[in-house]
UniProtKB/TrEMBL annotation:
Organism the protein comes from: Ficus carica
Transmembrane segments: 48-71, 78-100, 106-125
Keywords of this entry: Membrane, Transmembrane, Transmembrane helix
Isomerase listed as a keyword: no
Pfam family, one: Sm_multidrug_ex
Protein name per its UniProtKB record: Small multi-drug export protein
Record carries keyword Transmembrane helix: yes
One GO term describing the cellular component: chloroplast
InterPro entries recorded: Sm_multidrug_ex
Length: 136
């Protein structure tokens, strides 16, 4: 969590500085930012909740650093991005601790169940958001 506030605050200005110095770096950063925005659909859709759930998933590439990059690229408010990262890291730690203490067989079963629960949860959240947007 130590680098997260710095990434959220300074990633874009650092990327602009680097892009101004080198055209190849500029193209690479543009490509990286476009790809990140394209793949951050649920996070962009649900903002805090989406970022927190993204960071909470204990898979490679879904940790606090990646969450901080996403928060910076999506221009999330600082405290919103920081708190979503923090809660996500805590939940990921609790989940990994639970899975380690269950043993391999139960951890696999729990992982499969959590996958289906998360898929179901995202569909419910989308329906709730859609129904709220039609009311407005």
């Amino acid at each position: 969590m130590v680098p997260v506030p710095f990434i959220i605050l300074y990633l874009k200005s650092f990327a602009s500085f680097i892009a101004g110095k080198n055209k190849t770096a500029s193209r690479l950063l543009d490509l990286l930012f476009k790809n990140t925005k394209a793949k951050a659909g649920p996070v962009e859709e649900f903002q805090w909740l989406g970022l927190m759930l993204f960071v909470a998933v204990p898979f490679p590439g879904t940790g606090a650093w990646t969450g901080a990059f996403i928060a910076s690229i999506l221009d999330m408010p600082f405290w919103s991005g920081l708190s979503a990262n923090f809660v996500g890291v805590v939940l990921a730690g609790l989940l990994v601790n639970l899975l380690v203490n269950l043993g391999l067989k139960y951890a696999i079963v729990t992982g499969i169940v959590l996958f289906f629960v998360s898929t179901f949860m995202w569909s419910i959240l989308r329906k709730i958001k859609k129904s709220l947007s039609t009311l407005n």
